[in-house]
Amino acid sequence: MKVLSVAIPCYNSAEYMSHAIDTLLAGGEDIEIIVVDDGSAKDNTLEIAKEYEKKFPNIVKAIHQENGGHGEAVNTGLANASGVYFKVVDSDDWVNTDALGKVMDLLRSVIKGNNTLDMLICNYVYEKVGEEPSTVRYTNCLPENRFFTWSDVGRFKNSQYILMHSVFYRTALLKEIGLKLPEHTFYVDNIFVYKPLPFVKTMYYMDVDFYRYFIGRDDQSVNEKVMIGRIEQQLKITRILIESHDLSRLKEPKLKKYMAKYLAIMMTICTVFLIKSGKPENMERKKEIWHYLKKYNPKMNRMIKHTLLGAIMGMPGKGGRKIIIWGYEVARRVYKFN
Asked: What are 245-263's pLDDT values in tens digits?
């Protein structure tokens, strides 16, 4: 049995995937690296994956599938995972090897002990081209180096969210809840870090800079122009999140508050990029996504509208739209996303 399974979704990733794999190999024999070639056709991604599998047969699995998108590659990784814990590392990102060693030591001790750990959280670092690295840590809102529950969680800042970069799940939990990400859809990482949360009972936070999140390629899904061009994908994911849980029924207040804030962020992203597109028809689509939330679950709609972001997004008219975009640009510069 492996301690940790790491899925690396790859699509025409030959230029940079080796760096991701090499950093994970530092985990030794207790790690399982599942390299999923998602139907790459323009380079030798699959051949590189197979070379690693041949060289490290007890660590690396190379899997080829017809192109199904990032979500289907994660699904394939999870289906083939034999580790007690599961993580996703994108092929253009990498991990800190010292932090990986500490994570592996912790997970080994958890497996040998009497506590069940559903979710481990570590820091992640923005590696943005032309800028100094910037770390997102959770020292102000999560207890360090101990097991805790949602009742122990503090207040998350606007720059702090549990992202795919920062989270490790107990593999069995993901399989038990039947987590399955949609095919041929971008931004599925939001489902990955949202849908399992009500099923997570025990957590642990390590203040180590584990994940290195690279931002800078023009074709990346988080590039602003790309996001505007794929706004339909963002709307699809947001609808899936709306339908996944009735937040008004959650019993744990801090979990409810966190998930409402996360959903408000998703509604905000849709609103901002529909406005920034400059297309008149997208003004109607902006109304439609908010109407969808209200019609699907009026109680949840009121919850979102009572968040700060929800209130701002509801500002009417041309003046309201200007304030929304101004606020987004300020946040983008401060928190250095996109």
From this structure: 999 999 999 999 999 999 9
